[in-house]
Amino acid sequence: MEFIQTLLDNSNIPFLTAFLLGLLTALSPCPLATNITAIGYISKDIENKKKIFRNGLLYTLGRVIAYTILAWVLILILKEGASIFKIQKSISKYGEMILPPLLILMGLFMLFGKYLNLPKIGLNKKGDNIKSKGGWSALLLGVVFALAFCPTSAVFYFGMLIPMSVADSMGYFLPIVFAIATGLPVIIVAWILAFSVSSIGKFYNRMTSFEKWMRIIIGIIFLIVGIYYIFIFYL
């Protein structure tokens, strides 16, 4: 962290500054908790290395979509003379309200979802179920986690990245670099799980109880992080 902060303090290149801000955001305690939660969610498919890495990329893509669209809207608004503080306060407020209950609901669903009699959805005449829902879930997770601004990530994004993007001629591209950096730890861990320890997945794939226990563990992680955020945001 100190090394990255030193590089940031001495950086005069906007793209490098945006990337370093993203890394600092990813490694800060509050966003780090969401990245750990995302890694746990993605790793539940450890027997399928391609799916793990794909979901890691989709999670990061979700962060890119959220940060970029929000930044582009803010850049246009700020160029008209609006106050960044008021915008930051409103967005952070709703993000803080949504994230904790959402994490708890997802945790409960992973723990007890199998007991629910949910209808199956077909996409074609053969009645195939949606097999890619894990990917869409990872994408949505990236969007939601990106918009749940903690105090530290709010300072980096609203207080540093956005003003720099407004002032720079290439400012519309800086949020993309920032967003990729925030998801980089998840991509790296997903790659390690997918291509460096794939034999572990093959081993566990022979154990019928593996998927059940993984879902229980990840469900508990979601509950713990959701409760953790309740203490941060609500108390």
What is the approximate shape?
globular
**What's the helix count?**
10
Q: Tell how many strands the DSSP assignment holds.
A: 0
- Unreliable spans are 118-132
Compute the average pLDDT. 75
**Given the helix and strand composition, which structural class is it?**
mainly alpha
Helix content: over 70%
Structure description:
The chain has ten helices and no strands. It has helices at 2-9, 14-27, 29-42, 49-78, 84-112, 133-147, 151-167, 174-196, 198-205, 210-233. The chain is 77% helix and 0% strand. The two termini are 28 Å apart. It is mainly alpha-helical.
Topology:
Elements lengths: L1 H8 L4 H14 L1 H14 L6 H30 L5 H29 L20 H15 L3 H17 L6 H23 L1 H8 L4 H24 L2
List its salient traits:
235 residues; mainly alpha
Q: What's a concise summary of this model?
A:
With 235 residues, this protein is mainly α. The protein has helices spanning 2-9, 14-27, 29-42, 49-78, 84-112, 133-147, 151-167, 174-196, 198-205, 210-233.
